[in-house]
Amino acid sequence: VVKAQALALSGEGKFEEADPLWDEALGLIAEADGAKSAGSIKARVQHCESHLWPAGRQEEAIEKMKQVHVDAQEVFGEQDPKTVAMSKYVSTYLQEAGQHEEAVVWRQITLEGYHATLGSGHRGTMECADALADLL
Predict the structure, then answer these.
(1) For residue 109, how many other CB atoms are within 10 A of its CB?
(2) Which of 26, 61, 132, 136 fits as disulfide partner to 107, beta carbons 3.0 to 4.6 Å?
(3) Residues sharing a CB contact under 8 Å with residue 86, sequence separation 6 or more, in sequence order
(4) pTM of the model
């Protein structure tokens, strides 16, 4: 319920009102499921996407997504599709924030993950390779 309220307020652009609700929701999820659980990882991604980034808190969103990536590696494994998705989020955030060099590094990490999980001929792998080429 708290997370739904936080999402709703963030969606309405009421970021200051949503802040304490997000803190509470993320705390409750971590307490119930574990700080590095799949549910906690998903909630933290939603927090970044629907709250921090739209509120203009790009640096905070990027740092939190990097931590989510580390946690996903520990929970799911380095080559799991969910972990690869986290690296794609980080690279996209970095690119949108104008942090070109670091975005290239994270896009390379994503491409390596796609090769390992999907194979070189998969559409997602090819799209990631194209995105990396565009950055270079």
Answers:
(1) 19
(2) 132
(3) 41, 45, 65, 68, 69, 72
(4) 0.84
